[in-house]
Automatic annotation (TrEMBL):
SUPFAM superfamilies: Glu-tRNAGln amidotransferase C subunit. The gene is gatC. Its EC number is 6.3.5.-. Allows the formation of correctly charged Asn-tRNA(Asn) or Gln-tRNA(Gln) through the transamidation of misacylated Asp-tRNA(Asn) or Glu-tRNA(Gln) in organisms which lack either or both of asparaginyl-tRNA or glutaminyl-tRNA synthetases. The reaction takes place in the presence of glutamine and ATP through an activated phospho-Asp-tRNA(Asn) or phospho-Glu-tRNA(Gln). Belongs to the GatC family. This is Aspartyl/glutamyl-tRNA(Asn/Gln) amidotransferase subunit C. Heterotrimer of A, B and C subunits. It catalyses: L-glutamyl-tRNA(Gln) + L-glutamine + ATP + H2O = L-glutaminyl-tRNA(Gln) + L-glutamate + ADP + phosphate + H(+); L-aspartyl-tRNA(Asn) + L-glutamine + ATP + H2O = L-asparaginyl-tRNA(Asn) + L-glutamate + ADP + phosphate + 2 H(+). GO terms for biological process: glutaminyl-tRNAGln biosynthesis via transamidation; regulation of translational fidelity; translation. Keywords: ATP-binding, Ligase, Nucleotide-binding, Protein biosynthesis, Transferase. It is an enzyme of class 6 (ligase). GO terms for molecular function: asparaginyl-tRNA synthase (glutamine-hydrolyzing) activity; ATP binding; glutaminyl-tRNA synthase (glutamine-hydrolyzing) activity; transferase activity.
Length: 99
């Protein structure tokens, strides 16, 4: 018999805003019991001498330093655009908006 009662599963379903028919409550109670058993096994293996980790391998930051560099000017950027107008990109009008 699962340690989770049908009432507890029904309560969890209400919290998750799920509608579960009565015939499915026992089925989900069994499935949740299997999940809780697996979590209990992991808890038994992880002893006090094992440090908690978020990743099995050590991670290091491989990004470059944040240094200011000169960028492109407005004219250079607009030179590569298919169309420009008044110093801005010109794009097709969408959704029938009026100018």
């Amino acid at each position: 018999m699962p340690s989770l009662s049908r009432d507890e599963v029904a309560h969890l379903a209400r919290l998750a805003r799920l509608h579960l028919p009565d015939d499915e409550l026992a089925h989900y109670a069994e499935q949740l019991e299997v999940i809780l058993g697996a979590v209990a096994q992991v808890s038994e293996v992880a002893g006090a001498d094992v440090a908690p980790t978020s990743h099995p391998l050590p991670l290091r930051n491989v990004t470059r330093p944040d240094e200011a560099r000169p960028g492109l000017g407005q004219e250079a950027v607009l030179a590569g655009a298919p169309a420009s107008e008044e110093g801005r990109f010109r794009v097709p009008r969408i959704l029938g908006e009026e100018a």
